[in-house]
Design brief:
This protein has 746 residues and is α+β, with helices and mostly antiparallel strands. The protein folds into three domains: 81-320, alpha-galactosidase from lactobacil brevis (Beta-galactosidase, Chain A, domain 5); 334-417 and 454-482 and 522-639, Aldolase class I (TIM Barrel, Alpha-Beta Barrel); 641-745, Sandwich (Immunoglobulin-like). The protein binds alpha-D-galactopyranose. Alpha-D-galactopyranose (GLA) is lined by residues 338, 368-369, 378, 413, 480, 482, 528, 530-531, 547, 550.
Length: 746
């Protein structure tokens, strides 16, 4: 890791692992993108900005300044002064004029990494390996009196480059930020592909690849949350880039609200990548002396395809973003009653589930929606966080104590950001809901969103949640958020500042979770938003795990978890075994397969365990044992994707290898059975080619073929053989069958 300033050449070189990021100052004042890729270490690389080519820089050829601006590879593009590609920054002054041009003024190279006030952000990790450095570049628009500081950080143990910007009004009049994105990166790329993650409720984060084409291609959200539909991520991939080969440039947004992630291919065959808060519905008033800080963007370069990109993200998030003390701890195996009972439960029913669960080795009972106010269907009481004593006589403390007496922990569900029209809270404070005066607010799941731009609302919400947590021994909270925003108006913000509501809301959420994790440092927090609608790096800063999707079907989960694990460590993916027929898709899959798939995440159950057959209960016991054995590997290891069902429509396979390569675990799911087919060859990854590995099939009953000595399990093979030759996995009879194979270095 290093940050160097080459004054004579006007270059800043950031090195992070094998990667190098170079920024250049062109014509003495324009901050340009020179290079992001494998280390080149040549001080002459500033020529890559092409400022020596026609039409020259403005100081030599002022009459063609516009041509310069429209082709220059900018680090932070601005609107209205000759660059017609999309911009990071668009500022209006008090007189109503738009336009901004930033000139470089000076730099600072800092040890460590400054915090971003009120925002989740990466931080330096532990020891020398976790150390970091930051480059700050000050730029100014003298006409506006606007100072912009571009910030770049690198860490000793990561190849990622982290970016954000601070905008300070140093003038005497108000400025109006109409766009304030976080980062821009202009690169040459005439041919390539764009990779994004897309979906919907119950099918979040499916991978989508499409050719890069002239013009703008973007994914975005102005739903008030990052959303099920798009994900605040984009990557451009060189031609023929794949899982293990080719170049990939990726950006991921550490933010949980509206976003835009855009690739714009310009007239000169360059591509501009942009990422930041969505400008739609956004306007921020910057009074003299005020600062606006943009959320940060993680930039990753990989010269070994998507696999290496994923591992860079995973290590970065484990080492520099997730703060929870549970990060490196074994999480308790939980059982959640949502799919078991929905709203139809009482203390006795929950205890019945807990008793059976305890017997089988499950460690925590989580009580989901329906324990408060008058909530027996999803139509009321959000905001009234008082225990429903009709369902839970003796209250929460009685139930929690009973669960603890069984030797289990107790967790609870909240949806703190919401209010039901049918609630005491809404009747008392209708103005606390986000809405536009005179317009009937749009309901979604019969609820409104609370106006978290108001400090008194944040306080109320905080006290409601914290009061409950103080009242009983509660170890875990599932923090849900079940609707997207409409009617975006605040009774308090005033005429000028309505455009700030979306962002102020997200800042309110962050403040709530910050306060919660401070007061209850040992609380295990799991974020959730109608399944996985707010699974983003912003929320990960507060919670070590996020509910991945309401779709718990083992087959549907393959694509959801593949897309999620493209960026997030497996230890962050909330994954549970649920009952069949599956409640979302009606599919029936083997209990064993459901366990294997959920084992790739935080692991737990989402079913009425009292209704399982004896055989299924026995399998629960097996799964609990497997979890205890493999959880440290899954949590801390390196993730490799071997095959993707989304691509081949036949089977799925992934692998986790311990950092020291002493052990590995492979999960294989044969989605549909095929007739007249021989064994399948799977090439493993990430092993030590020279080491010998012992192969063990995991499961209570070794396969018939294994017993007959027809499989490769139970034997020792060289890493090179398994990686380059391959592992033959026998065909299994029936659909949705799976296998787990463990590798131990001899
Ligand atoms: C959301 C969550 C579910 C469950 C319900 C309760 O949909 O994703 O897991 O908690 O809310 O209403």
């Amino acid at each position: 890791m290093g940050i160097g300033y080459l004054e004579k050449e006007g270059l800043f070189r950031l090195t992070a692992g094998d990667a190098e990021y170079v920024i250049g100052i062109a014509d003495g004042k324009y901050v340009g993108h020179v290079y992001f890729g494998r280390q080149i270490g040549d001080n002459r690389c500033g020529c890559l900005m092409r400022t020596e080519e026609a039409p020259f820089v403005p100081s030599k050829n002022l009459r063609e300044k516009c041509s310069f601006a429209d082709a220059f590879p900018a680090e932070y593009s601005t609107w209205g002064v000759g660059d017609y590609r999309d911009s990071c920054l668009n500022v209006r002054n008090e007189e109503g004029f738009r336009g901004c041009e930033l000139h470089y003024e000076g730099c600072r190279i800092l040890e460590g990494k400054p915090e971003l006030p009120g925002l989740p952000a990466t931080f330096c990790g532990e020891g020398e390996k976790g150390a970091g450095m930051t480059l700050e570049l000050d730029c100014r628009d003298k006409v506006l009196g606007l100072k912009v500081t571009l910030r770049y950080s690198v860490f000793a143990d990561s190849e990622a480059v982290i970016r954000s910007a601070s905008l300070v009004n140093e003038g005497e009049k108000s400025l109006y930020l109409e766009r304030a994105l976080s980062a821009c990166m202009d690169m040459d790329m005439e041919e390539g592909e764009l990779l994004t993650l897309a979906g919907s409720w119950a099918r979040e984060r499916h991978m989508v690849r499409r050719p890069l084409a002239f013009g703008k291609q973007l994914v975005s959200s102005f739903r008030g949350e990052s959303g099920h539909q798009d994900h605040p991520f984009l990557a451009v991939m060189g031609r023929n880039a794949g899982q293990d080969q080719g170049e990939v440039w990726a950006m991921h947004f550490v933010y949980s609200g509206n976003f835009v992630a855009e690739a714009e291919v310009s007239q000169f065959g360059s591509v501009r990548l942009l990422m930041g808060i969505h400008p739609e519905g956004f306007e921020w008033v910057l009074k003299p002396g005020e600062t606006f800080v943009t959320p940060e963007v993680v930039c990753v370069y990989s010269d070994e395809g998507l696999g290496k990109m994923s591992r860079i993200f995973h290590d970065l998030y484990r080492g520099h973003l997730i703060r929870s003390p549970y990060l490196h701890r074994k999480r308790p195996i939980l059982i959640n009653n949502w799919e078991a009972t929905y709203f139809d439960f009482d203390t006795e029913k929950l205890l019945e589930i807990a008793r059976e669960a305890k017997q089988r080795g499950i460690e925590m009972l989580v009580m989901d929606d329906g324990w408060f106010g008058d909530r027996n269907i999803d139509e009321g009481s959000l905001g009234d966080w008082e225990v429903n004593e009709k369902k839970l006589p003796g209250g929460l403390s009685y139930l929690a104590e009973q669960v603890r007496a069984l030797g289990m922990e107790f967790g609870i569900w909240f949806e703190p950001e919401m209010v039901s029209p049918d609630s005491k809270l809404y009747r008392a404070r209708p103005d606390w809901a986000i809405q536009i005066p005179g317009r009937e607010p749009v309901q979604s799941r019969a609820q409104y969103v609370l106006d978290l731009s108001r400090p008194e609302v944040v306080d109320y919400v905080y006290e409601s949640v914290a009061g409950i947590l103080r009242s009983a021994p509660i170890s875990y909270v599932k923090w849900d958020m079940n609707r997207q925003m409409t009617d975006v108006g605040s009774a308090c913000l005033g005429r000028e500042r309505q455009g700030e509501l979306f962002h102020r809301y997200v800042m309110g959420v962050y403040e709530l979770q910050e306060r919660l994790t401070r007061e209850f440092p040992e609380l295990l927090l799991e974020n959730c938003a109608s399944g996985g609608a707010r699974f983003d790096p912003g929320m990960l800063y507060y919670s070590p795990q996020i509910w991945c999707s309401d779709d718990t079907d083992a087959v549907e989960r393959l694509a959801i978890q593949e897309g999620t694990a493209l960026l997030y460590p497996l230890s962050t993916m909330g994954a549970h075994v649920s009952a069949c027929p599956n409640h979302i898709v009606g599919r029936v899959t083997p209990f064993r397969t459901r366990g294997h798939v959920a084992m790739a995440g935080t692991f737990g159950y989402e079913l009425d365990i009292t209704k399982l057959t004896e055989e299924e209960k026995r399998q629960v016991e097996e799964q609990v044992k497997m979890y205890h054995r493999f959880q440290p590997l899954v949590r801390e290891g390196d993730y490799y994707r071997i095959a993707s069902w989304g691509e081949n429509h036949k089977y799925d396979c992934w692998q986790v290898v311990s950092k020291d390569k002493r052990e590995a675990l492979m999960t294989y799911v044969q989605v549909l059975a095929e007739p007249n087919w021989h064994s399948r060859k799977l090439r493993l990854k990430g092993l030590d080619p020279e080491a010998e590995y012992w192969l063990e099939e995991i499961g209570p009953e070794a396969d018939r073929q294994a017993r007959e000595g027809k499989t490769m399990t139970g034997k020792v093979y060289k890493g090179a053989f398994l990686m380059y030759g391959g592992l033959l996995v026998p065909r299994m009879e029936g659909d949705f069958m799976s296998k787990m194979i463990h590798f131990t270095r001899m």
